[in-house]
Amino acid sequence: MKSRYLSISILFFVAFLTLPSHAQRIISELETNSDLAMDSRPDSASTKKTKKIVPNDIKAWTVDEQYGNITSTHVDTLHHMFMNTDLPEGVEGHYNTLGNVGSPRMSRIYMERPFIPDFMFTYPFDMFVVPTERFRFYNTKSPFMNVTYNWNGSKNNGSDHVKVTYTNNVGKRFNFGGIFDYIYGRGYYDALSTSYMNASAWASYINDKYNCHFYYQHNFMKTTENGGIEDESYITNPEAMARSYTSNDIPTLLSQTWNRQEHDLIFFNHHYNIGFYREEDIDSTHTQQVFVPVSKVFHTFKLEKMMRNNRAYQETENYHSYTYLPGDSTQDYTKALMVRNLLGLSLCEGFNKWALFGLNAYVGYEYKRFTLPDSTKRGGYYTNIYGNIAKQYYHEHNVLVGGQIIREQGHFVHYNLNSEFVVAGTDIGQFDINGHAEVNIPFLGDTAQVALNASLQNLAPSFYFGKYHGKHAWWDKSTDKEFRQRIEGVIDIPHTQTKITVGMENIKNFSYFQNTGIVLNADTENPVISNNVSSMQCGENIQVFSANLRQNLKLGILHWENDITYQTSTHEDVLPLPTLSLYTNLFLRFKIAQVLKTEVGADMKYFTEYYAPDYSPVIGMFMNQNKLKKTKIGNYPLISVYANFDLKRTRFYVMYHHANQSDGRYFWAPGYPMNPSSIRFGLSWNFFD
Fold this sequence. Notes:
Elements: H1 2-32, E1 38-42, E2 49-53, E3 58-63, E4 70-73, E5 95-97, E6 105-107, E7 137-140, E8 144-152, E9 159-170, E10 174-185, E11 194-206, E12 210-224, H2 233-236, E13 257-281, E14 287-312, E15 330-347, E16 358-374, E17 381-384, E18 387-407, E19 413-425, E20 431-443, E21 446-459, H3 463-466, E22 467-469, E23 474-476, E24 482-493, E25 498-515, E26 519-520, E27 528-529, E28 533-555, E29 558-569, E30 580-592, E31 596-607, E32 614-616, E33 621-623, E34 638-647, E35 650-657, E36 667-669, E37 672-673, E38 678-688
Antiparallel strand pairs: 1-2, 3-4, 3-7, 5-6, 8-9, 8-38, 9-10, 10-11, 11-12, 12-13, 13-14, 14-15, 15-16, 16-18, 17-18, 18-19, 19-20, 20-21, 21-24, 22-23, 24-25, 25-28, 26-27, 28-29, 29-30, 30-31, 31-34, 32-33, 34-35, 35-38, 36-37
């Protein structure tokens, strides 16, 4: 709790320092509806007005955890597809979700799924939780702030999502900033609300000889769990019900049940460059001194402190199969502390004509500690609704070595090969080898790209696949490492706006969760199948094949974008996937009065029927359906219509989401319907200086 209040205090202190000047500028922009990049102010020496140019150049990049390599990325102010950025199903509808904004979700596209992290409970929240490889750093010529607000529904069932990003430079080299991100989704179905808060702060310094990147992130997340609706007939066959129901009136399986998480993350990467200066020509008469790095020493530190609490103040009869702890309520609790330290050396690419690629190598140490309730009295106690329940600590230690070969310079061929091995400790024998290579080829007056991605991994599954202790789920299992082999080819032709991706992966010892609920009161006329979740591993080989086509077409102001994915799995009972997933977007793009960029259109998300994963509120993860009672979802088009606008530094949209709601087959997961038709609105405003 103290860390959360500290995060909020720091954020408001930064806001206090910057608010007066920004408030004045916001008021001025609202009054004039002007850009203010060219700001007229009285001249100090006369009454004449002069124009002050406020630079609005801003760059953004991400940093990889191991080596601190910088990868340029876009600033999060893009106009196109803005209307879909706040949808729980994802921008292109790739996710199965519980429906509410920010709620747990999992991609139906297998090749998009990341490996489940050690603290697995963050895995379904990738709409809100930002991992290190996606965290943006900035450099700007003038103070920059972006305010984004998304809204839908009413005060009873809608959602509000506010995100404020502020960044500023002190000189050319040093940048700092902060993020405040808040989601409150009431939910269109009972007991399905979300309340999340993120406070982040960062700083970076980039010079010829010394670079560093630091950020701190705090997340507080509270998710209400309803277990799904009691009977899918409320959606699929509403005429058979005794009366008509609004979405909020439909009975749900759980009430007064919550999952709560808190995360604190500190990341720090820095390196010192060793090199020389050389003169380079600017033009025929001028030269400049340019620093050429030859080698560098780098260090990375990452600390994560995570907590999850599953609370149920009212137990639902016949919902759970088993009970492992006493009491009329649930108060499951687990913690994780993870520390990772790396120290490495690099030989830089391009310092002479023979240095055709860069070399990086590091050694590292990681420590992990997990806390769970235990059935024996050792290691301390919890004092909660269960009374004195033992608290057990589990410690893991690993010694790591890793390396990279990388080529980023040049016009035609780029590649990188990364590897990491655990040479001692708990996960000895674990390794992760992955590579990427691309060739740029002149084609039709443009440049086409052919790329190859490959990986070979032998990874220990998340700690919680082996151990989990709670009131309604409990297991202690030995797990084998997952052995994965993947190869993927990509052809990208910008001239025709065509991108084709074909890939295949083989998995052995695939780890997953299964609903293993049992039949209660089997002798009655209406037997009940209860819910239970268990950790499972499949010792057989599973092959996944995937082919994706992205094709955009244009005729004047008419645009048609398509994203089609075909998938197969050799073990559908273990790894179910829809055969076909489709996103299509048909819209008109034009300008009004030569200044208002406008997109008006409709999009559709669709996937074929399959036994989609169920969801377990007990552990907050998706699981395979109970074999005693399985149901297919899919074969339903979700259509929305929208108008998307961009005026100077302001983006906004209006959308009618799920415009085709009618025939009652709309589910994202078993028991979790899609939201009914609703109006959605979004606004994003950029401020400089």
